[in-house]
Design goal:
Ferritin; 6 helices; 0% strand; DUF892_YciF-like; Ferritin-like domain-containing protein; YciF; Ferritin-like
């Protein structure tokens, strides 16, 4: 499908984020199992539940607008999921792995935040106010998840533990920052 109108662009972007959400829903259980921190594992589990709701929200938008999503694979999320898989395979389980998982998850959240922000603007511009409100709800959920991940890293002690892992002490400036 060639993109010739704002409606075409909206459908393309909605199709892309739908694919991204589906890929993330498949990846989150693996991230949860890889996390050593119980709080991080719970955060991944909670986000999986939220992600399933976001997929249902997109399904509702598609039904209400009587549109068809394109069968595309979100290349951006595919790359982010591949990066997370690499972290799990190459970083030994522990605080350092948890810090790296948080960093990778935040990359995915930022991708989703950018996508949903764009979709909200597009939906309003082409007169899909109800869809824009529902997409904004998802946008706010993604921002809240990003904030929770930051709190786990900084106040939850994941970064501090990672910086001291293996008996190595580092200056605070070498901590993984989110």
């Amino acid at each position: 499908m060639t993109i010739k109108t704002m409606q075409d662009f909206f459908i393309h972007e909605l199709s892309d984020i739908y694919s991204a959400e589906k890929q993330l829903a498949k990846a989150l259980p693996r991230l949860s199992r890889a996390a050593e921190s119980q709080d991080l594992s719970k955060a991944f589990d909670q986000h999986l539940h939220e992600t399933r709701g976001q997929i249902e929200r997109i399904d509702g938008i598609v039904e209400d607008l009587d549109i068809r999503l394109k069968r595309i694979k979100c290349q951006g999320m595919e790359g982010l999921v591949d990066e997370a898989r690499e972290i799990i395979e190459t970083v030994p389980r522990g605080a350092l792995c948890d810090a790296a998982l948080i960093a990778g998850a935040q990359k995915a959240e930022h991708y989703e935040i950018a996508s949903y922000g764009t979709l909200c603007v597009l939906a309003r511009q082409i007169g899909h106010e109800d869809a824009a409100k529902r997409l904004d709800q998802t946008l706010q959920e993604e921002k809240a998840t990003d904030q929770k991940l930051t709190q786990l890293a900084e106040q939850g002690g994941v970064n501090q533990q990672a910086s001291q892992q293996g008996g190595q002490k580092h200056a605070p400036s070498s901590e993984v920052r989110h």
